[in-house]
Amino acid sequence: MEMGFFLGCNMPAIRPDLERAIRATMPDLGVDLVEMEGYVCCPAFGSFPSTDDESHLAASGWNLSIAEEKEIDILVECGSCYSSLSMGRHLLMEDAKKRAHVNTLLEPTGRSVTGKSKVRHITDVLYNEVGTEKIKQALKHSLQGLHCVVQYPCHTLYPSNIVGFEKSARKPVAMENLVRALGAEVDPFSREHQCCGGAGGFTNNSPKEATAFIKEKFDAILEETQADCIVTSCITCLMHLDNIQKTLNEQLGEEKYTLPVFDYSQLLALCMGCDPAQVACISTMPRDAILNRF
Amino acid sequence: MDMNQTNPNLWKEIYDNKDLLFCYNCSTCISGCPASQADPPLLIRNLARKVILGLEDELFDDDTPWTCVSCSLCEEMCPMDVKPFELCLAVRKWQSKNDETRIPSSIVDIFRRGYTQAVGTNTELRKKLGLPELHVLTKFPEKRKQFQDMLMKTELINENAYMFSEE
Q1: Above 80 in pLDDT, residue A204?
Q2: Which secondary-structure segment (H or E) carries A264?
């Protein structure tokens, strides 16, 4: 199946090794990635969705119409992009008047929005389209003996009527089953479903409190699990959980928080035989302890 | 507080959704909200009260909606379907409309280059990783112009056109 690969901004600009991991794995699993020429910001919730409906939905429509023109669905890794594109599509589908207006704005491009292209998160595609059996068959290496904890990206869970692909947003299972398919163990813990807090204005407007907020989660991981690493499926969770550990250590004056953080596609790529120097070479916390397995 | 100074129709102006009026202050929107731990805290329940009671002046100066992380857990859990995250965005929109200093600079970045980040500038690193050239907006001058023309036709951007002029 072909899908439009919506890159967002952080992945291609700051963590292109993750983009490499996705491009290296999806086609071998039966998902061919199609470029979305001239795509724009999803738009981020702090941009047009915070100023007015009209420009917000125009930007959503711009992106959705690129996929519709190609008659394909959209594949997204970034949680915020996934949520914004999904909400934009939802708002355009439930309001015919707003949809008609956006289509008038899009007229000079020759494109339009009718709703025929769906927005899919990569976890959803890997779990519900590819499936864990096919993933297992594609592996050259196993993560056997490795303990992982999972960071479920909020934007892939809530609100479930718009973004949901789990049977229950209260008890998500896709990511942990995907991690188990690689041979690793997934350790549960009390704050498993706590948000990373990395998106939006929290970290900028209230840095001290935002750091204290995520410290509670890291302390729970250290106290309650044998985790060797954290696995997520969202560029914001990935970058925030990785980078904030440096801040936590600086505050504490010792190297207490040193958990490697991976996007699922990076672990998948490593297990499928990809070169760590291409698919997992950018991080704040060293990941050698795990990369050395490959 | 002088309740004669309130605007009883404020909710229609900000968030014309009758479900808002069913909010009974249960605070489900606050439990689990990361930004409720911020300083000052984002207390969505209080935002709902201010909108319903029409406390225009207080809401105008309230910075807390901008601390939201957009996780949307409140949207999932609200028992009265108030859609608190949408309410939060609606308050931001109302503030942006009535106070141009609220308009985030990120929309200027998106207008000019398509994205908040400088996507497409790390060509050496991308080449090293074996990645293809990016099909970003700035690579297609005609598409970029169409995108800017489209945005310039929207009301808020048109009214604040001076913010978007190229240096």
Answers
A1: yes
A2: helix A264-271
Residue A16 is nearest to which of B35, B92, B129, comparing CB atoms? B129
| CB pair distance less than 8 Å for A38 and B143 | yes
* Average pLDDT over chain A, rounded to an integer: 97
Token pair of A225, please? Answer: 């699990």
Per CB-CB distance under 8 Å, the chain A contacts of B150 are 58, 62, 105-106, 108-109
Q: What is the pLDDT along chain B (167 residues), one digit of tens a residue?
A: 677 789 999 999 999 888 999 999 999 999 989 999 999 999 999 999 999 999 999 999 999 999 999 999 999 999 999 999 999 999 999 999 999 999 999 999 999 999 999 998 899 999 999 999 999 999 999 999 999 999 999 999 999 999 998 75
Question: CA B90, CA B25: separation in Å to the nearest integer?
Answer: 19
The A residues from 112 to 151 touching B (CB cutoff 8 Å) are: none
pTM greater than 0.90:
yes
Query: Which residue's structure tokens are 């125009």?
Result: A58
**Cα separation of B73 and A191, whole Å?**
15
Over residues A82-95, the mean pLDDT reads 98
User: Between chains, do B117 and A10 touch, taking CB under 8 Å as contact?
Assistant: yes
Place of tokens 């004056």: A253
Residue B167 confidence (pLDDT): 59
| Residue B35 · residue B65 · CB < 8 Å | no
Cβ neighbours of B139 (radius 10 Å): 14
DSSP-assigned beta bridge partners for residue A262: A231
C-alpha dist (Å) from residue B160 to A52, A102, A108, A181, B13 = 12, 20, 23, 52, 21
Sole residue written with tokens 């199946």: A1
CA atoms within 13 A on the CB side of B115: 23
- Quote the distance between the C-alpha of residue B20 and its chain's center: 18
ipTM value: 0.96
DSSP letters along chain B, please?
Answer: --GGG--TTHHHHH---GGGGG-----TTTTT-GGGGSSS---HHHHHHHHHHT-HHHHHT--GGGG-----HHHHH-TT---HHHHHHHHHHHHHHH-GGGS-THHHHHHHHSSSS-TT--HHHHHHTTPPPP-BGGG-HHHHHHHHHHHHTSHHHHHTGGGG---
Longest dimension (CA), chain B: 66
